[in-house]
């Protein structure tokens, strides 16, 4: 759901860039702090960025000729917190715009705001709430990835509605119109992303339990930490 190059009016494009900038700057500081304090997690940090790049580069045709795609930001949000994903997501979106013509430079701020800021924060909030209510790691990861994906498409719908309100029903009607364009493909995509992210976390539990303990995803000392994903 990247907004294409030149699609937004210049004022809207600039406004979203200004809105996203503080989050990206804070994210850069968070990444530096993460690498400095936990250098052993650098490979996992790169893997989270690569996961988002690959998933969000997939383009699946929607019902009206537009395209939908997963976001892949839920994994990094759960592992490293949303500020880190603000920077990683910006890097992902920049290179997709430059190398794949997916999204654009003029709409980079809007795409960063929806996919690299709001999506990860929703994902992390859902994950923390699920765990606090007694849900297991697996359920938390699945819901985080799926609902973070859906939140991204909802924000994009609002961004488009603000730029192009419906002549008869205004911004509210435009939100419904743009949201319905993606809903049919985005809901199964969100579920698929949740399941794929869950599989990745299960793999990480088996091959990188020490890194997950450092990130406080797994308890500090658990004889059978991998069983936590089954809950």
TrEMBL record:
Record's subcellular location: Cell inner membrane; Cell membrane
InterPro entries for the chain: CbiM, CbiM/NikMN
Topology term for the membrane: Multi-pass membrane protein
Pfam families the UniProt entry points to: CbiM
GO cellular component, one term: ATP-binding cassette (ABC) transporter complex
Predominant place of localization: membrane
UniProt name for this protein: Cobalt transport protein CbiM
Organism: Pseudonocardia sulfidoxydans NBRC 16205
């Amino acid at each position: 759901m990247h907004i294409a190059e030149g699609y937004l009016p210049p004022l809207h494009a600039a406004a979203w860039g200004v809105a996203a900038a503080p989050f990206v700057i804070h994210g850069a500081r968070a990444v530096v702090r993460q690498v400095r304090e936990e250098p052993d997690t650098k490979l996992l940090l790169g893997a989270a960025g690569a996961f988002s790049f690959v998933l969000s580069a997939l383009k699946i045709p929607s019902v009206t000729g537009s395209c939908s795609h997963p976001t892949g930001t839920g994994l990094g949000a759960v592992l490293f917190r949303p500020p880190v994903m603000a920077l990683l997501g910006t890097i992902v979106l920049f290179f997709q715009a430059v190398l794949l013509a997916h999204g654009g430079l003029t709409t980079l701020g809007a795409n960063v705001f929806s996919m690299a800021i709001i999506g990860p924060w929703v994902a992390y909030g859902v994950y923390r709430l699920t765990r606090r209510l007694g849900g297991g790691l697996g359920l938390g990861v699945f819901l985080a990835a799926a609902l973070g994906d859906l939140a991204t498409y909802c924000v994009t719908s609002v961004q488009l509605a603000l730029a192009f309100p419906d002549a008869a029903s205004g911004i509210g009607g435009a939100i419904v119109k743009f949201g319905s364009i993606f809903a049919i493909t985005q809901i199964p995509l969100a579920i698929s992303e949740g399941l794929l992210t869950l599989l990745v976390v299960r793999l990480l539990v088996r091959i990188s339990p020490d890194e997950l303990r450092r990130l406080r995803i797994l308890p500090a000392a658990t004889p059978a930490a991998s069983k936590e994903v089954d809950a």
